[in-house]
């Protein structure tokens, strides 16, 4: 998170006046490739399975979320114009805001066509592929059957931090930790 200049630099360079670059959201629609990159870095495609007490059975929720510091609320608001859907929520307990799309029709009619046209190419591409598969299953009402629900649960169990390559990386992390501390800074370890 960018918190500005550290005190030591402010003291060393007292005549420097910070220049704030205003975000131009006058067009309201930001460049698609920028949205893709921002989603790759700060976004999450998710599937939630919860027990619905009223219906007496599990329910499936699908969503995409992009989070940013609350000072960038106008930037996050521009996502609603780019996708023509979604909402911006203040993150409870933190100074952050979330752009969220959770309505299935918005996901299938706006979000999926956007990312099919402007594909993710990083690690989130696999999560998007799984997310898209679950959306198709939900559109065909497969989530209302026991078999469909089991398939969605299996897909969900392999998304995001549950991916096999991530788990295998963390298993060997204690072995490599001294090496990383010696030759790299702390931030490399966190991102690894």
Automatic annotation (TrEMBL):
Which keywords accompany this UniProt record? Endonuclease, Hydrolase, Membrane, Mitochondrion, Nuclease, Transmembrane, Transmembrane helix
Q: Which residues form a coiled coil?
A: none
State the Gene Ontology terms under molecular function: endonuclease activity
Q: Provide the Gene Ontology terms for cellular component.
A: mitochondrion
Answer yes or no on keyword Transmembrane: yes
InterPro entries (UniProt xref)? Homing_endonucl, LAGLIDADG_dom, LAGLIDADG_Endonuclease
SUPFAM superfamilies membership? Homing endonucleases
In the UniProt record, does the keyword Isomerase occur?
no
Q: What Gene3D superfamilies would the database entry show? A: Homing endonucleases
Per the UniProt record, which residue ranges are transmembrane?
Answer: 166-184
Domain Homing endonuclease LAGLIDADG intervals: 36-134
Write the protein's name. LAGLIDADG endonuclease
